[in-house]
Amino acid sequence: MVKVKLENVTKRFGEIIAADNVNLTINDGEFFTFLGPSGCGKTTSMRMIAGLEFPTSGKVFYDGEDVTHEPSFKRNTGMVFQNYALWPHMKVEENVAYGLEVRKTPKDEVDKTVEDVLDLVGLAGMGDRFPNQLSGGQQQRVALARVLVIEPGILLLDEPLSNLDAKLRVEMREEIKSIQRKLGITTIYVTHDQEEAMAVSDRIAIQNKGAIVQVGTPKEIYDKPENLFIATFIGKGALIEGMVEEVGETIKVNIGASIIEGVNTGNVQLEDVQHVACVIRPESFFLDEPDVPCNVLEGVIEWYAFVGPIIEVKIIIGSSSFMIDAPTDREYVQGEKLTVYVPKAKTIVLPWMG
Question: Rounded to the nearest 10 degrees, how much is the dihedral formed by the CA atoms of 326, 328, 334, 335?
Fold first, then answer.
């Protein structure tokens, strides 16, 4: 397998900076995801790793070897595209075998390898079908098999599940992760779906306007976002605007009607009288006071909705609104007051970006 390093990589298209001074190391055998909003540069970054685009400046390394200007066919990578790119006139087994045939692999070896890979992706016995005879999920598996059959050093997946329905996306992301673990292949994934990224990734790079703004495990990025963009992009969260009143073991923030205490997870040192936002995740609200230091907030129920394991309750506190994950064993009445408890350790305080 392969360790990938991007060193000061920038890609310009005229006046547009698609990737801005990207510095990353993707470890051997790691499942690494580029995550960000549309147009942030994540696909461009992947294409430079694949050799389908070349950097305007900077270098790309595979296992310490400079491959910056090597074309894609010399890099031993395999890429699964968003639209699958299957040949409709070829059967499944022919689509999968194509890469081996281009490499002039002996036919008996091709047949055996194709059979093994189809079995790996759950398509055993479907080699004689044409792509239009398959479901979307099965076509996605064919596209994955066609890449895996050539035994690439790096597997690249560009928004591979975006054309599937919600239930199938969940099934396929689990399948892809399972296959990746089984093979131990270095895998680079691109998506704008936060839940998908957190479900499959060992580490995630958050990209915005071409720049990498944070790299970490899903838990690190969710629990300790380094700025307000990351905090609001990853997962759900309510914002309370305020001013720093005191910096100590916790950050005391004046929100007008009361003081909220929280922790700073970013790299910026918060000073007195600095404009900040308190970020609170929906699952961080409690209706019964937990045995930890808490902020106590009182609001009014605006509306609520039963969504299965929880009830989503929207409450108004001052001029701010909050969505909380509330237990289903209680009754909620629109317009009634509700007291909630938020652990100070779960209250994230970050510089305001407005």
Answer: -50
Q: Is 310 helix (H, G, I), strand (E, B) or coil?
A: coil
pLDDT digits (tens, 9 = 90+) for 313-325: 999 987 788 899 9
Q: pLDDT, tens digit, for every residue of 184-240?
A: 999 999 999 999 999 999 999 999 999 999 999 999 999 999 999 999 899 888 888
* Burial status of residue 321 (CB atoms within 10 A of its CB: 0-12, 13-18, 19 or more): middle
Euclidean distance between CA atoms 10 and 21, whole angstroms: 5
Residue count of the chain: 354
**Assigned fold of 4-223:** Rossmann fold (3.40.50)
Do residues 8 and 68 make contact, with C-beta atoms less than 8 angstroms apart?
Answer: no
Write the class of the CATH domain 228-351: mainly beta
pTM of the model: 0.90
Spatial CB neighbours of 26, under 8 Å, sequence gap ≥ 6: 3, 4, 5, 32, 186, 188
